Amino acid sequence: MKDLFGNINKNQIPKHVAVIMDGNGRWAKKNGLIRTIGHSNGVKSVREVVEASTELGISILTLYAFSSENWNRPRLEVNALLELLVKSLNKELPTFQKNNIRLEAIGEIHSLPKYCHKILQETIQKTSKNTGLKLVLALSYSSKLEILNSVKKIAQKVADEKINPEDINEDTISKELYTANYPDPDLLIRTSGECRISNFLLWQIAYAELYFSPKLWPDFKKDDFFEAIIEYQGRERRFGKTAEQIKR
Questions:
Q1: How many folded domains does the chain comprise?
Q2: Distance from the CA of 159 to the CA of which of 1, 109, 153, 229 falls in 20 to 30 A?
Q3: 22 part of the active site
Q4: Does the annotation mark 100 as catalytic?
């Protein structure tokens, strides 16, 4: 792990990293355990990735913790997931404060159960003055719904004659998204060997580097995260330009 950390160019650290944490259920099945145990072990990987992000000086880490589609899972699993979220926030609060981590959340937060929403908001408030890593949890999140809602807000502004249709641009839409206060992700990591985006930050990752790990999320540790950063640093980000233009 030390060698991997030493191989990272500290002058080329991504500002914003997003992670699709996939594979908890398959990890549990692979090990002959119930799915909820997989989610519990996934929390350990969250802790390692947060620590790695802090060590590298990453500004924003966005974790896809619970999608809108996850509400369709068996009720027992959904309840266990949300209970695990509450327990984790209570347990990790001292660590957040010690390491200057600021917790934030995006998504349809109001749809969470009252007890879960309460603990989430309390943790967000208690860490609101921290100035280090912004740990953003995507909860009850759907990128398509996010974009749809932004379009509705813009349409209403047009109807109210606050803006003209011809003045609408990419920035207009970005400002109405949940992530309006964040820069777009530089790097998107997905675990478990699946190579799809699953309705996550569809607008925001237009120019993000994508990294797919074969490891199931509970097996994804700090050194795996460092490997993803090293891979990212080896790529040439052109944003539609030629290599020659980038080098100028």
A1: 1
A2: 109
A3: yes
A4: no
